[in-house]
Design goal:
Blueprint (H helix, E strand, L loop, with lengths): L3 E4 L3 H14 L2 E6 L7 H5 L2 E4 L12 H10 L4 E3 L9 H9 L3 E2 L4 H8 L1 H10 L15 H11 L3 E5 L8 E4 L5 H16 L4 E5 L5 E9 L5 E13 L2 E7 L6 H17 L4 E9 L5 E7 L6 H8 L3 H9 L16 E8 L1 E2 L5 E2 L2 E2 L2 E3 L6 E5 L6 E2 L6 E9 L2 H14 L1 E3 L5 H7 L3 H4 L7 H4 L1 H5 L5 H8 L1 H17 L21 E3 L1
Parallel strand pairs: 1-2, 1-4, 2-3, 3-23, 4-5
Antiparallel strand pairs: 6-7, 6-8, 9-10, 9-12, 10-11, 11-14, 12-13, 14-21, 15-16, 17-20, 18-22, 19-21
Bound molecules: adenosine-5'-diphosphate (2 copies) and magnesium ion.
Magnesium ion binds next to loops.
């Protein structure tokens, strides 16, 4: 049985994974870059290891250093979180070779699903409906024009190695195809080092609905129902909810069964997600599989009552699933908002800086998965997401009311966040009625950009004197607190980690 886990990630997901480890009595090892030495995950872990400079390529993406850290600290398993090395088949295979358990998908399943063209071929063979389009890579822009005209416009040009919304271009007109092919290809080369592009028919007014699956090493596989992820900006998710307001019990059962079939087709193990595009008539098409824990996994945990990280560890230990499909059901409604350090009034430019004041919401049905604290400086090098705000309530209506309340309670000063923007989303009629698709943000841009002073902001104006004196208090605290070698105040969070050792690789 796994006794010590190295978490090869940072930020909120590193905290999330370690929290479950703590509950299970499993020791944790954090890895961190030089830019992350004051990150909360470093203090929360039992042991911590600096693995190099800020650039991910030299730290969080460096397989050799992470393996070396695992060995030095005697970790018997590695959890990769999401992003970074989580879907890297070479890393999964290397862990196996070194005798370290990789808490994630088998390398073979990652290879089959990581490449979108190969995934489409595998799914077609398994009888899973895919978005109409090509099964082959496009040779050049000329071929892109020819194939696009055969499929019929509008189409999407997509990077086969794509992820995180990158390398995707929507084309409406014939004369735009060649240009779109070239820009998608260069983006794909710079982001994924692979310029393979293919074509999909553009599904108009689509819903992004995904199914959580969980499989063990003994051939058992279940789904944990759906998440609705259609509130997106630039093909990236902003708000997610479960259940989907679009879903019917019949379609849910059918999609769940297909999701399990898709996972079984690649002999999947662990937690994974099958993403579908669903049109207004509830026709659904396989989009891709994410062979890892998903950012939005907590809404499934709230509704189904399963700790997905614990189940991942359970599967990695070689144990059979603890439940059958018929043991699982959805209870109530959950919504997640991604809290990002970005300027919603300036094209969502990421913002960085020191968090001066932080008040995270509490109370019934509230969950905050984050990693920041007062006095913490958000580094410029990584994702601008500083946390996730999740609510659960008995009905969708109550969940929206609760989300409005917790967004009101959430206070961050010192840098710009998208909290006001999220508050506006909670008031847009199409969201409140549950009648929206992936065009939601584009279609409601006027409502989302209008100047609107919320109660919280009004009281913030009134509170300004209190905040000012509070900031003086923090500055004072920082000036008088002990300093690190590079002259940073040592945070209160330091008290958390009673590390036995601290090594640098
Ligand atoms: P989710 O469905 O979990 O939201 P995302 O596509 O938003 O998935 O990706 C989650 C995280 O993983 C993000 O931080 C994103 O930047 C990162 N990510 C996703 N795909 C890739 C990739 N191919 N290469 C590098 N990072 C990726
Ligand atoms: P990534 O790997 O970057 O997450 P996906 O293939 O999952 O890429 O697509 C991301 C988003 O782009 C989807 O959630 C959807 O909103 C949009 N999209 C992708 N393909 C299509 C399509 N064929 N038709 C309409 N929208 C699409
Ligand atoms: Mg996707």
């Amino acid at each position: 049985m796994i006794k010590k886990i190295l978490v090869a990630n940072r930020g909120e997901i590193a905290m999330r994974v370690m929290r479950s480890c703590k509950e299970m009595g499993i020791k944790t090892v954090a890895v961190y870059s030089e830019a992350d030495r004051t990150s909360k995950h470093v203090f929360y872990a039992d042991e911590a290891c600096c693995i190099g400079p800020a650039a991910s390529r030299e730290s969080y993406l460096c397989i050799d250093k992470i393996i070396e850290a695992a060995k030095r600290f005697g970790a018997d398993a590695i959890h990769p979180g999401y992003g970074f090395l989580s879907e890297n088949a070479e890393f999964a295979a290397r862990c196996k070779k070194e005798g370290i358990i990789f808490i994630g998908a088998p390398a073979e399943a990652m290879i089959k699903m990581g490449d979108k063209i190969m995934a489409r071929q595998t799914m077609i063979a398994a009888g899973v409906p895919v978005v109409p389009g090509t099964q082959e890579a496009l040779k050049d822009a000329d071929e892109a024009v020819k194939v696009a005209m055969q499929i019929g416009l509008p189409v999407m040009l997509k990077a086969s190695a794509g992820g995180g919304g990158k390398g995707i271009r929507l084309v409406w007109k014939k004369e735009e195809i060649a240009d779109a092919f070239n820009t998608a290809q260069s983006e794909a080369i710079s982001s994924f080092n692979d310029g393979t592009i293919y074509i999909e028919k553009f599904i108009e007014t689509p819903h992004h609905i995904e199914f959580q699956v969980l499989a063990d090493q003994h051939g058992n596989c279940v789904h944990l129902f759906e998440r609705e992820c259609s509130i997106q900006r630039r093909n990236q998710k902003v708000v997610e909810e479960s259940p989907s307001p679009l879903m019917t019990p019949e379609v849910r059962a059918k999609m769940g069964e297909i999701a399990v079939r898709a996972a079984k087709a690649v002999k999947y193990e662990g937690a994974g997600t099958i993403e579908f595009l669903v049109d207004d008539h509830l026709n659904f098409y396989f989009l891709e599989m994410n062979t890892r824990l998903q950012v939005e996994h907590p809404i499934t945990e709230e509704v189904v009552g399963v700790d997905l990280v614990k189940e991942q560890i359970n599967v990695a230990n070689g144990l059979p699933l603890r439940f059958k499909q018929e043991d699982l059901s959805q209870r109530g409604h959950a919504i997640e908002c991604r809290i990002c350090a970005e300027d919603a009034e300036n094209n969502f430019m990421p913002d960085t800086g020191v968090i001066k004041q932080l008040q995270e919401p509490l109370g019934i049905g509230t969950r905050v998965d984050s990693f920041v604290y007062e006095g913490y400086e958000i580094p410029v090098h990584y994702d601008p997401m500083i946390g996730k705000l999740i609510v659960w309530a008995v009905t969708r209506e109550f969940a929206i009311e609760r989300m409005r309340r917790v967004l009101y309670e959430y206070r961050i000063t010192g840098l710009k966040t998208n909290i006001s923007y999220l508050r506006k989303i909670m008031d847009v009629p199409a969201f409140v009625e549950g009648k929206y698709n992936t065009k939601f943000i584009a279609e409601n841009n006027d409502k989302l950009s209008e100047e609107k002073l919320y109660e919280a902001e009004k009281s913030e104006v009134e509170d300004i004197a209190i905040i000012a004196s509070y900031m003086d208090y923090i500055v004072n605290l920082e000036e008088n607190s002990p300093k690190t070698s590079d002259n940073r105040p040592i945070s209160r969070w330091r008290e958390f980690g009673k590390r036995t050792s601290m090594v640098r690789i």
